[in-house]
Design goal:
7 helices, single chain, 31% strand
């Protein structure tokens, strides 16, 4: 038993994947810090206020085509062309019986106009007049005022993720700056004397530090920036001091030092920095030895040192937690139904996270689910995962399963992602 856990400890141990997710969700408290960001810098940020339309859309009735602005019942007649109306021309034009205007796309419709006939549909024309076909529908090729939406329509809600489409909508209302959640301060670090940074000279038995850059890039793909704070040694006293220097971070993510080895005392180092452990170990493969706890004002995720385990723990536990902490509405990984291509076996008695490829609705387990958590290549070879409960022994060919695309968008509603 790790030194920070005792027989009387209230720390949950060896819990299920679903219990771990629920527990994290229970304890993570959203931050309410905000800043004002120009639209061009708001992509991917979390909206911190409800935004409503101040203008009708469109704000005036306008032509959807280059053509002739007419009263639609006039189309049986030869119409006199009395002028041209261009986009940006807001003079008041009045359509008289037997007349029409040439009009350009986006130009304001003249008073009395109930249809626009594209130039190419004219039967005959010259500089002064035009003959148009019969049966022109009322309001054909017209964008009427407020036909898209009226002013006071909600455009963006607090907690929404700002997309390019959101920015387009807000810009169309003349909005230049919006209130967004301040970015989280996230620290990422590794433990272990054997861990060598990639820019250092490696000894024969050293291990290049791939975990932290992998975690940083995974977080970055979801819009979160993290600071790499280095490697702290497998030494309790130095580890305690190392953590003391991380005060002020909203989230600390470590890899390694949370299993049962003699030199694994990351948890104890955090406890000596006033961390309250919440749970230790999740009954999943890979990724069992995860520790979740809270220091004053800081959430702590101490992840396994094996690269596959830390990667999957980050995706399943850390990423949704970060979205919750920053106040996002969409904070649950989304699943999709797929057909399993070839049968493979599972480890009984624990949840199984299976890497695979998902293409055209078909899931194929990477290496037929024969790999270990110390490998890197299965992660590179995969674009999806499937999660299976501990009661399942075998996944059959042609079986319908739930799969999660790696780097998939998050959704607002939580659904079970386990296959039973």
């Amino acid at each position: 038993m790790p030194p920070f856990l005792t027989k009387d400890s209230a720390v949950k141990q060896f819990i299920s994947l679903q219990d771990a997710k629920k527990t994290i969700s229970k304890y993570i408290k959203p931050k309410h810090d905000f800043l004002y960001a120009p639209l061009e810098n708001a992509l991917g940020k979390i909206c911190a206020e409800d935004i409503i339309a101040t203008l009708d859309a469109p704000s005036f009735s306008q032509s959807a085509m280059d053509g002739y602005a007419i009263f639609h019942d006039n189309a049986t007649e030869k119409l006199d062309i009395v002028g041209s109306i261009f986009a940006g021309d807001f003079a008041e034009y009045i359509l008289q019986l037997g007349t029409c205007y040439k009009i350009m796309t986006g130009a304001m419709l003249p008073s009395g106009c109930t249809a626009v006939v594209p130039f190419e549909e004219a039967l005959a024309s010259d500089e002064a007049s035009v003959n148009l076909p019969l049966g022109i529908a009322k309001y054909a090729n017209c964008r009427l005022r407020a036909s898209e939406f009226k002013k006071d329509k909600p455009l963006c809600s607090e907690g929404d993720t700002i997309t390019a489409g959101t920015i387009s909508l807000l810009a169309s209302q003349g909005i230049t700056h919006i209130k967004v959640r301040s970015p989280l301060k996230i620290a990422v670090l590794s433990s272990g004397d054997e861990i060598i940074d990639p820019w250092s000279t490696i000894e024969q038995y050293g291990v290049f530090n791939s975990n932290t850059i992998t975690i940083k890039m995974l977080l970055q793909s979801y819009g979160f920036e993290a600071d790499y704070k280095g490697v702290f040694p497998d030494n309790l006293e130095k580890s305690v001091q190392f953590i003391q220097a991380l005060q002020g971070y909203d989230v600390i993510i470590t890899t390694g030092g949370v299993s049962m080895g003699e030199a694994d005392f990351v948890g104890e180092a955090f406890v000596q920095n006033d961390m309250t452990p919440i749970f230790h170990k999740v009954n999943i493969k890979p990724g069992k030895p995860i520790l979740f706890g809270q220091m004053p004002n800081t959430d702590v995720f101490a992840l396994p040192g094996n690269p596959m385990s830390s990667f999957l723990n980050t995706m399943l536990f850390v990423v949704p937690a970060l979205f919750q902490k920053i106040g996002a509405t969409n904070r649950h990984l989304s699943t999709q139904i797929a057909t399993n291509q070839a049968s493979f076996s599972l480890s009984q008695g624990k949840g199984n996270i299976v890497l695979g490829t998902l293409q055209n609705g078909v899931f194929h387990a990477t290496k037929d689910n024969h790999y270990n958590s110390g490998m890197h290549s299965p992660m590179s070879d995969s674009n999806a995962i499937a999660i299976f409960s501990g009661a399942k022994k075998q996944v059959e060919e042609g079986e319908a399963i739930k799969a999660i695309l790696l780097n998939s968008a998050l959704v607002a509603t939580a659904t079970s992602d386990e296959n039973h």
